Every structure is written in C-alpha cells, then in structure tokens.
Amino acid sequence: MTHFLAPVLALVIWSLIVAIILYIRRIPAMRAARMHPEKAKTPDGEWKRQLPLPAQYASHNYSHLMESPTLFYVLMFAIFLMGLASHILSLLGWGFVILRVIHSLIQLSGGKVMHRFSVFSLSILLLIVMSVLTVVGLVTSYNNLAI
C-alpha cells in the first residue's frame, strides 16, 4: 500500500489552502477596519467580531482543520506503522478527507450549520469505523502470532 498515506497529504494541502484563504480574507478586512495588528494578539476577543463574516468563517474553519483531523493523522500513521494498511481503510481515509473538504466549503461559503454538522458527524463516524477496523485488525494479527 505505497499510497496509503496519500489522504494525509491531501488533507495537509487542503489545510494550507484554507490558511491562504484565511489570510486573503483577514488581512484586507483588518486594513479596511483600520485595525492595528496588536488587537489580534489574542485568538479570541471583540476584534474578531469586527471583521466581516467571510473572514470569520475562514478563521473558524482553519481552527476546525486543526481539531478532529489530528485524530485522523495519528490514526493513519498508526495503521501504516502497525502494518495494517488496507484498501478499505484507504478508502475510508479518502472519505474522511472528502467530507472535511465539503465541511470547509460549507463553512467558507457561510452555508447552513446543520449541513456542516451533518458532514462533520459523518466524518467522525468514518473515524470511528476506521478505529474499530484497526483494533479488529490488530487483535486478529496478535491472535495469529500467538498461535
């Protein structure tokens, strides 16, 4: 499975694209509001609410890409390092990445929260399925060695 970790690279690249979108939206918004960069010293605060919603959406989405995807990264590397990579786990990994991109597109466009939440829930469900399959694979491989 030489390309098993390709979904990891794809999500890293997508996260960097969202980071670029964040800067493209935030810097001009801060300039238009004549906001001094020192106001942005802390991650939360009134200064963020002074920015237009598209700049806020990009910021929130970038933060979201640093949350549950970290579990995905660790899980994918764990699967790979334990020698449990499989076609089904690779497909589930790609499914997770696609759902995270859809989640981003909904959030970046100011789409409905319930649509975004549904996509988020599906992505978490894929992580759960991947985790269970990994545990089953690990137990199975351990049992085969113990015999």
Tell me briefly what this model is.
The protein has 147 residues and is mainly alpha-helical.
Give the arrangement of secondary structure elements.
Blueprint: H1 6-32, H2 46-49, H3 53-64, H4 68-81, H5 87-108, H6 113-146
What do these coordinates show?
The chain is mainly α. The chain has one domain: Membrane associated eicosanoid/glutathione metabolism-like domain (Four Helix Bundle (Hemerythrin (Met), subunit A), Up-down Bundle), CATH 1.20.120. It has 6 helices and no strands. It has helices spanning 6-32, 46-49, 53-64, 68-81, 87-108, 113-146. The longest helix has 34 residues, at 113-146. The relative contact order is 0.14.
Beta content comes to under 5%
**Helix and strand succession?**
HHHHHH
CATH class assignment = Mainly Alpha
CATH topology: Four Helix Bundle (Hemerythrin (Met), subunit A)
Q: What's the domain count?
A: 1
**Individual helix count:** 6
**Helical residues, percent:** over 70%
Characterize the biggest β-sheet: none
By secondary-structure content and strand pairing, the structural class works out as mainly alpha
CATH homologous superfamily, by name? Membrane associated eicosanoid/glutathione metabolism-like domain
Task: Label the overall shape.
Answer: elongated
Give the N-to-C terminal Cα separation.
26 Å
- Contiguous uncertain segments of 5+ residues: none
DSSP strand count: 0
> What is the CATH architecture descriptor?
Up-down Bundle
**Mean pLDDT over the full residue set:** 92
